[in-house]
Amino acid sequence: MEETVYKELESEEYFINMGPQHPSTHGVLRLVLSLDGEIIRKVEPHIGYIHRSIEKMCEHDSYQQIVHLTDRMDYLSCHINNEAVCLGVEMGLQLEVPERVKVIRTIIGELTRLSSHQLWWGVMGMDLGAITTFLYGFRDRELITDIFEETCGARLTMNYNIPGGLMFDIHPNFQKRTKDFITYFKKKLPEYDDLLSNNVIFRERTLGIGNLSKEDAISFGVTGPTGRASGFSCDVRKHHPYSAYNKVEFKEILRTEGDCYARYQCRIDEMWESLSIIEQLIDNIPEGPYKAPTKAVIKLPKGEFYQKVETARGEFGVYIISEGQKSPYRLKFRSPGFSNLSALNHMAQGCKIADLVAIMSTLDLVIPDIDR
Amino acid sequence: MPASTCSQLKAGSLIDIKMKSIVNYFKEIFFGLKSLVTGLRVTGHYFTHPKEIITQQYPENRETLKMFERFRGEVVLLHNENNEHKCTGCSACEVACPNGTIEIIHKRVDVDGRKVKALDTFVYHLQMCTMCGLCIPACPTDAIVMANTFEHAVFDRSKLTKVLNNPGSKIMDGIK
Amino acid sequence: MKWLYDFSYLTHAIHKGLSERFEPGTVVILEMVMVGVAFMLLFAVLGLVLVYAERKVSAVIQQRLGPMRVGKWGTAQTLADVVKLLLKEPLINKDADRFLFNLAPFVIMIAAFMAIAALPFAKGLHAIDFDIGILYIAAVSSLGVIGILLAGWSSNNKYSLIGAMRSGAQIISYELSVALSLLTIVVLTGSLQLSVIVESQADGWWIFKGHIPAMIAFLIFLIASTAETNRGPFDLAEAESELTAGFHTEYSGLKFAFFFLAEFANMFIVAGIGATVFLGGWMPFHIGTWEGFNAVMDFIPPIVWFFGKVGFMIFLMMWFRWTFPRLRIDQLLTLEWKYLLPINLMNIVLMAFLSLMGWHF
Questions:
Q1: ipTM of the shown complex
Q2: CB-based burial of residue B151 (10 Å sphere; 0-12 exposed, 13-18 middle, 19+ buried)?
Q3: A188-204, pLDDT tens digit by residue?
């Protein structure tokens, strides 16, 4: 942990640096806090410590190769990121994927969202001091990564989607494992409530902290559970359904308080919704091919294509400008973390330092997503 | 925290409000303690059931450790018992790889009186491989697969540049 | 084996043996040295055992195994950690106040030694038996605050100072609750002397005899003593995921080991006080007139009972630490001044009333 102090001689305020290496910034993020005693006056995030020029690399790769780079951006929702690029390319090629592919993509996408929220829950407890929750979150997440490892071959960077469908068919054990997991997790999720949600200490630390009103959420462009906790109805799965989302029934979780506890509760409720979506789909995977035939070298027609999906953090968008070559001319990712982080300064006004940690955990930032 | 602000002047309602805030005070304490005890029960359950420990002692359990078959560990070139492989040297995998992990070095051999391109060395840079698996479906003859070995740590970086075709191996008959 | 049940045989024998050989003055000094060495050994063993126990308890709660590699089942892990700490370079800031910087860990250890000397470990194994036992312990454990404030001030580091001030405010506030909850039992016993308190529990522990007010007092004592030792949900001053790293940021090597050891020693002391006052000290657990059961309980030596009860209380404190999130500093102080203190005062009045009416066992 590195902290240095810069003393401002003119004013009462002084600066503290929550350096790039810090246990609770969830990645390499540098925050320069301007404090007045214990109260925060201004938070300035400095990003770029993990910039790997992914967008530039995409300009030289073919469309199948771009997919594996998106794994590494928001590594906790990697399947959904892959899906975004594949859907963008398929939109450009006007390609219709088989039903089987859509359903499997939805199931694996919801499993990814679940595993991301499980990790978020564990880290949230750890940031606030209940270190045991970290281990419990990871214990439950292991079962999902086992499902992925058996089917896709990797636990974190899955690269299972290709434009046109899936790289290979699902493993025969996939359905059984997923069903076992659903039964197991439905019993464990109330434990999460016992440990954190209803705990009086946790409620004291999150109720009323870090308020974000609906108008501010819309103007900062905050999406995902963070925005929905402020009442901003922004679920891409409802407004612009993709894959099999128009076939399942699920609720969009909206709350109006906009404080840390509302954001927390939004994600817990989303976990329940994801479980219900998987349950609806897991027994009804239609038979058929696991990919649509595409040429070996994919060239998108000239034009601009934008595809957005709902990752665990918010709205993730892929914007492709194509000149008809086998690599895009320019590819831009709209990352949800970038907009969410921009609201941090507004939310943290007047809070104490200890509250800042709580606010940052509820924002659920993944810094490689912001820096790309 | 009870917010016991009473700005009314009537004595009766003053006592009423104070009673309610006292009741609230004790109710808060009771529910607070109850939530803490529920949390303790959860962790107490795991403490009293040590059978639910799920971690494994890694190097000691190597005999019983079984990885999933599809796990992407490293790329290998399949050889049959006669030391023959199926790689024609077409370089489809080299083209499909996003970052130049695979290098195919060709040589010319005589087949039926013509000189055709064949595989000389299949260089695989394990240190650069991202295990994306794009090379496997690209191969037209299914010569390469992803093995599920995962213990790749070495002390000498040059050991990570592997040559995948065994010395003295040649291509199987009938593969084009 | 009768000395195992009544250590006064052992202590008398040693005293007689020494008085035969030396003059009275030298005997006193030699006995003090022996007691001092015994307590230092106790601290050393405590440190090793408690650190290992904490790691194993936290591991099982988190469904993992804890240290397993160093020594059989990881028992030598703490020893390895101690050796590592000893080999570290003791850094001192350029502008730090050297005398106070070096003094601070010793002040804390001295406070811990003085408090532990007053605990009755078993029948006859009581180093200092003042007739104002509880008052003495409360007074002496306050000295630890001086050590913390010295450490924060002499580090010449703004964050250490903030952390030390917060820690100091926390400890001073919660001392009040600790003392008041102990007073609740003193109302019943009528004496501050620790050996009298233990003897008066021969027919049952105060937590059972004093029913409701004693249980409330025990609960308050548990909460207040975890706050006293900067542990559990009250460890804001030294938490890793907060901004300031607390009063011992600038310490490394052996001095840091002292702070670390002092935290576990303090935990042992408050658990010891709790066990003595509420849970019967070294008295075995008797149920009314069940002769057979009582005989079995009497078979276990009192010193095992004492360490068992202390172990139970330490386990409770560890359980709290690994379950609950942390409290913010203002919530901490609110808890003490707005909740614990009023309830404590009401409890004392209730207990006094009960004692007058004779409505306790």
A1: 0.84
A2: exposed
A3: 888 888 888 888 888 88
